[in-house]
Amino acid sequence: MNRKEVEVLDLIRRNPYLSQQEMAERLNMSRPSLANFISSLMRQGKIVGRAYVLPEEKTVICIGGANVDRKFLMDRPAQMGTSNPASVSGSVGGVARNVAENLGRLGRSVKLLSIVGNDPEWNLIEEASSPHMSTELTKAIDGLSTGTYTAILEPDGEMLLAMADMKIYDSLTPDYIAKNESVLLSAAFLVIDLNCPLETVEYVRQLALANNIPLAVIPVSAPKMERLGSDLTGISWLILNRDEASKHLQMPIESVEDWHQAVRQLLDQGAEAVVITGGKDGAIAGNAAEVYHFHSIQVGQVADVTGAGDAFSSALVHSVIDGAEFESIIQAGMVNAAKTLESNATVRHELTALQLQNELEELT
Fold it and tell me: N- to C-terminal Cα distance for the chain?
């Protein structure tokens, strides 16, 4: 396709119900020119039918948070009760959105299903996200404010404090999700984060279970573990850290044996595969066959910890879809997380499927 055809297809992907005149005006071209491009796309099989319906693709659908992130990097170690010199940067974030961008950069067809305010923050998110995913399932609602996340980082990049305004996700209800049920049923893989309410997580879990759709659940923080029910049947991959696992299981995870036991308990609750990450201590992952301890990958210089967990989860999903072996799946996640730690970006810009494969081969 040439550049104009790409622009036409992208506009149709966002809203297939626009008239030709509306599309022509938005693309700043004449209606006859637009008609020629549409005819060309139909001959290529890129669009079908009178309503320009796109042919169904096997997609990954990521359900949950889409935020604006702000990071304050302090010049010196924090001094409480006084002003601290710092530099500030802004980017788009949200667990589901970050996973979607990672997957998009890895070449996957991916859609983001979220809820946002009709505000400048959403415009920023859409502009940054649309090259890597479809945002057609995400609705901007008047009167609501797009989620925001603010992190305060120590000079070495470690997080000191984070604050989040995520009230909007209370509106991410089962009824809201159910409006897209036909799209969910055609997905190759579902990913949901725990920004979603408990009843929404349960709705998606049961839908995945009833229709044999792979599902990954990714917590956002320990306090939000209350949004994960005790029945984990239908969850193909549960990916969480030690604090989140400890909160859910109501048990301390202090030793390696505690760590192993936590994985086994989560498997007993019905999850098909469980990964509990531990930062510099690596990760322990298991399925019905075995529980393994994976050592961490050495990182030269940590630039920013934000986004590393999302990088892990997305590379894991990517490798599962590719049919990789269990050990390779976890290693892919750990490599992507390690490389993201070295990047100032929440989702590293150089990421591609080939790049990740080369990094895995170098590790081997």
Answer: 38
